[in-house]
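To illustrate the input format used throughout this study, we show a single complete record. The first block contains the structure-token representation of the backbone; no residue identities are included at this stage. The design step must infer an amino acid for every position from geometry alone.
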């Protein structure tokens, strides 16, 4: 599968926006080194409140740059990392990848898709209407989530712009 990494981002704080970096380091079984969501057990606040011992299936958040382009056509300008993603890809239909799909990022790192990201109301804090813009319905009314995918790190290594 051909594709590129357009941006990599991380934040040590539990904030929606993650700052872009030249390179991030993926750590096996943990996530992005230095990111608030890294760890073997869940780090997302709402999930910690329910059960802090559950496994962290959301170590890495990937979004496709094509979503940013789609949002621009709707008048919403969103930069890489602004919606909380660690890795912004281009040329890969992330939303079509089934759970357990493995992606090699760079020469060493491998992540395994655990599922679609459930967008939350915090997106509206970035721009009003953003949450609604990343949700859609198919022809029979089923909900379509477009805010990227979540993954776990299977093999660690560096990941940076233009690496795939």
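Output of the design step:
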């Amino acid at each position: 599968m051909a594709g590129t990494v357009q941006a990599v981002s991380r934040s040590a704080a539990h904030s929606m926006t993650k700052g872009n970096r030249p390179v991030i380091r993926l750590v096996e079984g943990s996530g992005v080194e230095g990111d608030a969501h890294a760890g073997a057990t869940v780090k997302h606040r709402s999930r910690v409140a329910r059960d802090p011992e559950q496994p962290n299936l959301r170590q890495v958040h990937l979004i496709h740059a094509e979503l940013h382009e789609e949002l621009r056509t709707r008048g919403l300008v969103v930069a890489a990392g602004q919606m909380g993603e660690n890795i912004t890809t281009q040329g890969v239909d992330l939303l079509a990848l089934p759970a357990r799909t493995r992606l090699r990022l760079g020469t060493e790192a491998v992540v395994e898709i655990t599922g679609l990201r459930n967008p939350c109301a915090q997106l509206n804090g970035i721009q009003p209407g953003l949450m609604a813009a990343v949700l859609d319905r198919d022809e029979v009314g089923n909900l379509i989530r477009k805010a990227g995918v979540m993954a776990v790190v299977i093999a660690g290594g560096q990941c940076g712009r233009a690496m795939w």
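Structural context for interpreting the output: The chain has one domain: 4-160. The CA atoms of residues 37 and 44 lie 7 Å apart.
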